[in-house]
Amino acid sequence: MKLAVYPGSFDPITNGHIDIIHRGARVFDQLVVAVLHNAKKQPLFTIEERKQLIRTVTADLNNVEVDSFEGLLARYVHKRQANVIIRGLRAVTDFEYELQFASMMRQLDGEVETLFMMTNNQYSFLSSSIVKEVAQYGGDINGLVPVVVEDALKRKYGTGE
Known about the structure:
Elements: E1 3-8, H1 15-27, E2 30-36, H2 47-57, E3 64-69, H3 73-80, E4 84-89, H4 92-108, E5 113-118, H5 128-136, H6 147-157
Protein name: Phosphopantetheine adenylyltransferase
EC number: 2.7.7.3
Pathway: Cofactor biosynthesis; coenzyme A biosynthesis; CoA from (R)-pantothenate: step 4/5
C-alpha cells in the first residue's frame, strides 16, 4: 500500500490545501493530512480545531485520515510507515525552501520520497496567513476557504454579520 503524508500547519486549511489533498488522495492508497504542532508559532486555531475543520472538509474522501504530530517529520513519517511526503508549491519562490526541505528529508530517511505538487493556478497567491489577515479585518474570503472555515474565522475574529 502506498501511504503518503501531507504535513502542514493548516491554520486554517484553505482551498489550495484542499486541492492538494484531493489530488493526493487520487494518487495514493491512503493519505494522512498531518497537522504540525509548532511550538514556535502562535496559531489561531488549536490542533483539535484544525483537525476537525480538515475532517469536515475531507469527509467525502474515504482514503484520507487526519492526524497531528510534533517534532521531526521524518520520525512521524517513519512511525506511520509512509512512503511519500507531499508538498505543495505555489510559486517559484516556494521552490528553494522546499528543495532544502526535501534534501534534509532525504538525509534523515533515504527511503521516503518527497513529491511536489503544483497548486492550481487559481490558488497560487493563497496562504493561510493571507486568509487570516483578510478575515481579521472583515474582508471577503469567500472562495478562498470552505464555508465552514470561513464561519470559524468569523467567529474567531468576531467579524460575522
